[in-house]
From TrEMBL:
Listed name of the protein: Prephenate dehydratase
NCBIfam families: PRK11898.1 (NF008865)
Domain ACT residues, every copy: 204-281
Species this protein is from: Halonatronomonas betaini
Higher taxonomy: Bacteria, Bacillati, Bacillota, Clostridia, Halanaerobiales
Keywords from the named record: Amino-acid biosynthesis, Aromatic amino acid biosynthesis, Lyase, Phenylalanine biosynthesis
One annotated Gene Ontology cellular component of this protein: cytoplasm
Pathway: Amino-acid biosynthesis; L-phenylalanine biosynthesis; phenylpyruvate from prephenate: step 1/1
Origin: domain of life: Bacteria
Marked site: Essential for prephenate dehydratase activity: 176
Domain called Prephenate dehydratase: residue spans: 3-183
Amino acid sequence: MKRLGYLGPPGTFTEMAAVNYLEAKLDNSSRLEAYIDIERLIMAIADGEVPAGIVPIENSLEGSVNITLDYLAHKVNLKIQAEITLPIVHNLIVKPGVKLDEIEKVISHPQALAQCRDNIKKYLGDTEIVKVNSTAEAVNQLSSRNEAAIGSRLAARRNNLEISKAGFQDESRNWTRFVLLSRPGVNLEAGRARQALAASKTSIILAPVKNRPGILHELLEEFARKNINLTKIESRPTRKTLGDYLFFIDFEGDSQDREIKEILKNLRLKSSYFKVLGSYARLEFTSEELAVEYN
């Protein structure tokens, strides 16, 4: 692969996903390249600036990363090559010696802020909230004693900062799904792997031909008849007419399987918009399995 883009700067949880993915694939030659936001990274992959990249797509506390879904649906033609699921531990990071009652501003990525919403209120009250492109950027921007950032232990260590409160997310069990994206026709999953890859999963996007009673039931019935397990279904606006939606559907199975091919064929006939994002393997890590621990 040689080069792999990720949501930077260094110290983000997306870098953690990228490093652990490469380690699991026994890939010691690829160089990681940081991008300042998800939009620029996705467009860099689409434009051929970088062969592939890893972006967050869903969190167990706050749901989908909408910017990732919207770019995949509306702006680019990219394929999902793999899924990496990691446990996420957020930390409240401050300059050395700063006490909680000194903090007047909290900086982080919108998803991290949302995952720590209750604890921000509990420990810091109605403090000012500042949103930036990544957790690592938040830590890098920490400049005064009345500020705190939410981010990884690695980012704190790299900036010689202190962790005021570890495990600052509202729920102890916090997981994020990341996806490896590339242009169509690029195969990044060949070769050896240190960790066994889970069974294939497929992601599609569709919009029904006509919005009418029972249409969603008809679409989902295609999976039920073949006893195919859905792992996710979510709607997003088509951006055309109020009340019109696209459906993002993830399910177990490979698009090359005979029964899955039949399902996809039937869904195409009932859809005005249809896209297969890819069939791919899944890497699911626990804290104990992480080759690089950033928490």
